[in-house]
Amino acid sequence: MSTIFTKIIEGEIPCHKVAETDEHIAFLDINPIAEGHTLVVPKKEIDYFFDLPDDLMQSTMAVSRHIAKAIDKGLNPLRTGIIVQGLEVPHAHVHLIPLYKENQVMALGHNVSVSEEQMVELKEKITAEVSL
Ligand code: 5GP
Question: Residues 96-106: pLDDT tens digits?
Fold first, then answer.
């Protein structure tokens, strides 16, 4: 059965898409721990991040860097942090977390509330800085 992220990639489930290439998609996390929390997902359905073939791992990190820089420019956090967890969705992905405060906790489960209107605005601000 397809993962929820494959359903997003195939357009069966909506998302706030930030960027897409032949091999990757980036979209806002539906349950963010910070405003602009973005997931970078290789389209190929591989569960464990560290099972990605070398070239796909490298391109995933390159796309993640590009999106992190777009988050930095579009949302102006202090920095953007990165988490790879994969306990909920068995489809490799990178979490990019804008860090707005020195003491901000970067742990999944510490969610913030973001309205649909804000999600659209956040997505647009990041997308405007993407040139993949
Ligand atoms: P992990 O697998 O790394 O533990 O976490 C999966 C992440 O995917 C969670 O942060 C969760 O909020 C996010 N997520 C799960 N289902 C969906 C979905 O349908 N759409 C979006 N945009 N994010 C999702």
Answer: 999 999 999 89
Domain ranges of the chain: 4-127
What predicted TM-score, i.e. pTM, was given to this entire model?
Answer: 0.97
Closest CA to 33 of 122, 113, 93: 113
Residue type, 6: T
Q: Which fold has domain 4-127?
A: HIT family, subunit A (3.30.428)
Ligand 1 pocket: which of 6, 28, 30 to mutate (most atoms <8 Å of CB)? 30
Which ligand 1 atom lies nearest to the CA of residue 87?
4
Rounded-to-integer distance, Cα 12 and Cα 21, Å: 18
